[in-house]
Amino acid sequence: MQLANIDDQMKSELIPYDYNDVSSPAPGIVLFKAAGHSPGSQMIYVMLQNGHEFLFVGDVAWDQQNIETGIGRPLLVSLLFLHEDRQAVADQLVALRVLQEAEPNLTIVVSHDAKQLQDLRVKKIVHDF
Fold first, then answer.
1. Does domain 22-122 have CATH number 3.10.20.310?
2. Helices (DSSP H) in the chain: which residue ranges?
3. What is the pLDDT of residues 93-119, one digit of tens each?
């Protein structure tokens, strides 16, 4: 459900989750602030009860290739349209690539990468409910 579809009564009951740099709101979940093109960008680490680990990287990358190559969005898009901190994003892309190489069992999920999501479905790492 998108926020636009939530009635005003429900919207008034939503409370933003405020934290400084890192927070663990529940067992197996860690949130941390991240560079990205949206205010409040964050990454979310999740460890399932079966031990499978996921890192949802939000707006840091548009697709898995950004992490693999360390190359972010085009300069024009990044600076003029998104107003992102290019150096912070570049640093995070490098850190994600290093993490991916060091932790091959960690599934890094890129928000906007439909091909990656389909590959994860085929591998039965994620599935639709």
1. no
2. 8-13, 64-69, 75-76, 86-102, 114-122
3. 889 999 999 999 999 998 888 888 899
